[in-house]
From TrEMBL:
Highest taxon of source: Bacteria
Gene Ontology molecular function, alphabetical: pyridoxal phosphate binding; transaminase activity
Protein name per Swiss-Prot or TrEMBL: Glutamate-1-semialdehyde 2,1-aminomutase
RNA-binding found in the keyword field: no
Record InterPro entries: Aminotrans_3, PyrdxlP-dep_Trfase, PyrdxlP-dep_Trfase_major, PyrdxlP-dep_Trfase_small
Gene: hemL
Family named by the database record: Belongs to the class-III pyridoxal-phosphate-dependent aminotransferase family.
Cofactor(s) required, per the database record: pyridoxal 5'-phosphate
Keywords: Pyridoxal phosphate
Keyword Protein transport: no
Organism: Reyranella soli
Length: 427
């Protein structure tokens, strides 16, 4: 309560902005994730790896727009690409030069992707991948295959959300919700429902659900069982594609049939994509008489295509991906070493540049381990981080950006160390 009161007292202008926002948006909000109690802060500026709020406080941004902000703020290469695009107009009603360039970069980097199509968001990418997989199964004569296997804790967008039994606004497929990282439990469900499933959709590391990495053994089992049963395996790499030059699929060696993408690949502009094996993606080939329609006014929007091609082609190169994820790995190791030294029930799970804080000492392997964490301790962590100038998600989520250097990394570690030692009695 004390931390919450201090937050309110420190942010009077953000509070006023919040009241204004409430006049025209439900709860003052247009993006549920960005709500936090007592009210979210308003950001007025970003530069490099820093953000400034309406009350003038400066932050090191370790949230990185939930992975979309991998380039930091106003990266000069991306900015120049957007400037060029702006100078040539941006609503053509026609193809533009950058879309094939970005598609080629994606297909070259992602092992599972022969062909790709763009969307406006990761959510849309997943919706289209499922639609494609469904028709693919039908055309292969798998007429009973009408269901999708997803995993408890999986997040694939606002309409594909599987925490606590799914969301009432989910796309109305029939879902079989399997236990993530449970090899035998999932194998049994695949055996029981194999005939009915046209797709299995999963994140190779669950991102929103607390950076829960998929065990290799589990991912391999899903790969083998889905292949044997003719079920399309879709990796949602909307967040995890950043974790190596060719995504988490390259790092784990588990190659799905289809992959969905989003976030930073559009250079920080609205973006999503779905792609995969040629024979599946050719369903969308408009030169074929029975092709599937996939429209979308902004699928190839000029600013995203320009920003994406510059960002993915010139900035987040394979070498940059290695460097960022090595930096993240080192930071997470340092944070966990501090937690262990202080013997607190606090830790950071994740891979490379993505991590999440958990107020528990149980190793993070399953949904139950995540649920065992103290929510109060995590909320306190959020308030303490924000008060110390570290911009982080309410749920303790961190996605590093390439503008973070040694001094900002050290500062982040030092602030967490202060938290762990000052709040030791509560952890
Ligand atoms: N899939 C995953 C794994 C995500 O983390 C997200 C967003 O956080 C999405 C899909 C949805 O992407 P978007 O918010 O662009 O619709």
């Amino acid at each position: 309560d004390e931390a919450r009161q201090a937050y309110t007292a420190r942010n009077p202008k953000s509070l006023t902005r919040h009241h204004e926002a409430c006049e025209a948006m439900p709860g003052g909000n247009t993006r549920t994730t960005l709500h936090n109690s007592p009210f979210p802060l308003t950001v007025v500026r970003g530069e490099g790896c820093r953000l400034w709020d309406a009350d003038g406080h400066e932050y090191i941004d370790v949230l990185g727009e939930y992975t979309a902000g991998i380039y930091g703020h106003s990266h000069p290469v991306i900015r120049a690409a957007i400037d060029r695009a702006l100078n040539h107009g941006w609503n053509y009603g026609g193809r533009n030069a950058n879309e094939a360039k970005l598609a080629k970069l994606v297909a070259d980097r992602m092992p599972s992707i022969d062909l790709v199509r763009f969307t406006n968001s990761g959510t849309e990418g997943n919706v289209m991948a499922l639609a494609g997989a469904r028709v693919y199964a039908q055309r292969k004569g798998r007429t009973k295959a009408t269901k999708v296997m997803v995993f408890h804790g999986g997040y694939h967008g606002g309409v594909l959300y599987f925490v606590s039994g799914g969301s009432p606004v989910n796309v109305p497929y029939e879902y079989i919700v399997a236990p993530y990282n449970d090899v035998e439990g999932t194998r049994a469900l695949l055996a029981k429902h194999g005939e009915e499933l046209f797709a299995v959709l999963l994140e190779p590391m669950q991102g929103s659900h607390g950076c829960l990495p998929g065990d290799i053994e589990f991912l391999k089992m899903v790969r083998e069982e889905s292949r044997a049963r003719g079920i399309t395996m879709i990796f949602d790499e909307v967040m995890t594609s950043r974790l190596s030059p060719g995504g988490l699929q390259e790092k784990t060696g588990v190659i799905p049939d289809m992959t969905t993408l989003g976030k930073y690949i559009g250079g920080g502009m609205s973006f999503g994509a779905f792609g995969g094996r040629r024979d599946i993606m050719e369903l969308f080939d408009p030169t074929k008489p029975d092709h599937l329609p996939h429209a979308g006014t902004f699928n190839n929007n000029a600013l995203t295509m320009a920003a994406g091609a510059a960002g993915y082609g010139e900035v987040y190169t394979p070498a940059a991906a290695k460097e960022l994820n090595e930096r993240g790995e080192k930071i997470r190791q340092r944070l966990n070493a501090i937690c262990q030294r202080e013997k607190v029930a606090f830790q950071f799970s994740g891979i490379g540049s993505m991590m999440t804080a958990h107020a528990t000492s149980r190793p993070i392997k399953t949904a139950a381990d995540i649920a065992s964490g103290s929510q109060d301790a995590k909320e306190l962590f959020f308030f303490d981080m924000m008060a110390a100038g570290i911009w982080i998600a309410r749920r303790g989520f961190v996605a590093l950006n390439i503008m973070i250097g040694d001094s900002e990394g050290d500062r982040f570690v030092a602030v967490v160390e202060e938290f762990v030692t000052a709040r030791k009695a509560l952890l």
